[in-house]
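User: Round two. Same drill as before: sequence, then structure, for each protein.

Assistant: Same drill it is. First protein:
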Amino acid sequence: MDNKVWAAVRALFVAVLVISVATLGVAALIGGNWVVWLRGAAVAVAAAWLVALAGQAARGKRSAYVRIRFVTIAAPIGIVLILVAPDSGYPGWMKAEQAVVGVLVAAVALLVNRRAVRQAFPKRGKLG
């Protein structure tokens, strides 16, 4: 398995973590409703978890890889729903932040769903 892929995945997840923590800092400075705090904290925790999963996947752990694939496909869909919802409770600045997070996570989805990466994590019982 090409570790360059996992280094890029880890870097993208670290970027999501940094952005999410910065979002909580902005919420502390300018004030944020409960939706901002809940979403910001949840995304920060999820990003930390994904950084850890990227390390496990880089070491060949299939379950970590499968979780990353699932999250990186599902999360951008959820983010799009937040962005298009007319009265979601998210202020414009947080919708912009979530758009950036969505792009970063979608980039990970593109990386981990490439054929070479998928083939490095065969289903149990399959060798190739």
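Second protein:
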Amino acid sequence: MHPQRARLHNELHARPSIYFEEPAHLHHYAFLDADGIAADILHRVAEVTGRTPDIEAAQEILELGDQTLKWERHTEFFTLTLLVPRPARGESWPPPPPLLAEVAAQHSRALISASLILVEAETSWEGDPEAYGLRDPAGSSVGDDDATVWSDFRLTAAGVNRLLLVNRGLNAFRLGRMTRRLLEIETYRMMASLALPLAKEMSLELRDHELELGELSERNTESDAANAKPLLAAISSLSARLERSGARSRQRFNATEAYARIVYTRIDELRESRVGDSPRLGTFILRRFRPTVHFCAAIHQRQKSLAESVARLNDLLRTRAQVEIEEQNSEILQSLNERTSSQLKIQKAVEGLSIIVISYYLFSLFKLGLQSLDALGMPIVPAVAAVILAPLGLGIIGVLAWRIWRVKQH
């Protein structure tokens, strides 16, 4: 059996929902998991429950008397969900239990989402969402009309978003799944929106970078070879700043895209239908959430396009500089060729003169030798001397010319 078979198979059961019956309150808090926040929360949970949590697990469901606590670890955030049965005539929107209140107060700067779902039975609810303090709420019939969900998406003074779910036909299993979807929509929507401040900040930066790129492009069309070096330095500086900005934002924008896909999927899984004249929950959420995602995606694409434009300008300038260098090299080679040709002509002239001089001295020696023999009483007939000495002189001159040719070849 493959060593990972059991682990991969059990991913089907990795993140179960809390299954329960109405009426109940479902408190849900999501914290950005940075600086060991998840470990601190699990340590506090262990102190309250008296049980050591499984640090390697992705989630765990703990029974705390009549309450049920679930913690769940994600890539970038950590969630706590506490199910509290609602007593008869209990408060509609109670404050969080002490454990959640303490954790939220301790890590308030990391708290990215806080939601409270009130689950009521159809037979016991008050018949109007405004009776629960919801102003101009959006509402949808979900789960093939087996439940109705209402929310005005306004935060309370404590920063909690309230949702009212009226159950008509959902069993404990489907009710747990439905509330999980609603909580995931809120959590992933907030995680996706984390890129919005960064996108707005980068929008101003990219505008400045685009103006700088336009100026560099104009300089590139007008500059000569002498100004290529400072222009190349300016383009390289702009490219480095864009790369640093991309490294800072790339992961955040990619995460936004992934979280947005989850939100869209969870809204589709609600299987909504309209309730009266109220806008549907999915419509209300997507009306502002989708433009946020599109704006972040546009900034991401704008940044990539700008980086590609800078890279093309850099390549264009380098290509132009390379062409100019090649032209200079061609001129240098042409000059060297002309100089070599002149040297070769001079060398040939020197070689010819050398052979003439050597021939002159050689025949002068022959003449002196014949005169010496004549003075010693051994006269030689000129015709005989010419027959003997002419081939010898020509042979010596030929050997000298051959030696000069061999030296040139090497």
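The chain has a mean pLDDT of 85.

User: Perfect.
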